[in-house]
Write a structure and sequence with these properties.
This protein is mainly alpha-helical and 117 residues long. It is built from 5 helices and 2 strands; from the N terminus they run H-H-H-E-E-H-H. Strand 1 and strand 2 form a beta hairpin. InterPro entries: Tscrpt_reg_HTH_GntR, WH-like_DNA-bd_sf, WH_DNA-bd_sf.
């Protein structure tokens, strides 16, 4: 998995890293049981502080997407794909309701963009 951070962005670096891992899990690019780069290795590659990566990994652990194992590093949880399934079901509910309300696809997309923080 390729990681990138934008140091000029308003979003904290740890949040950017966590979002990339989260997105990889949701897209299926990162699979359950897969080992993520060590915090030290990722910090070096991204040229960020080690604690920034540790904060990102802690966020993902708290969201129950990864496990942090001493000696093995960060590993994607076996049930992480369940999160993706929940999101797909929520999206289906949204689309069903939007269609019931007579919204076009472009209007649904506009609503999703509006919902972003």
């Amino acid at each position: 998995m390729l990681f990138r951070v934008d140091v000029a962005a308003a979003e904290p670096l740890a949040d950017q890293i966590a979002a990339q891992v989260r997105g990889g899990i949701m897209r299926g690019d990162v699979t359950p049981g897969e080992r993520l780069p060590s915090a030290r290795e990722l910090a070096e590659v991204l040229d960020v502080n080690l604690h920034t990566v540790l904060r990102a990994y802690a966020q993902l652990r708290d969201e129950e997407l990864i496990e942090l194992r001493r000696g093995r590093g960060a590993v994607v949880r076996g049930d992480a794909d369940a999160t993706r399934l929940r999101l797909v079901e929520l999206a289906r509910q949204f689309v069903r309701e939007a269609r019931r309300q007579g919204l076009a696809e472009a209007e649904m997309i506009a609503i999703m963009k509006e919902a972003q923080p």
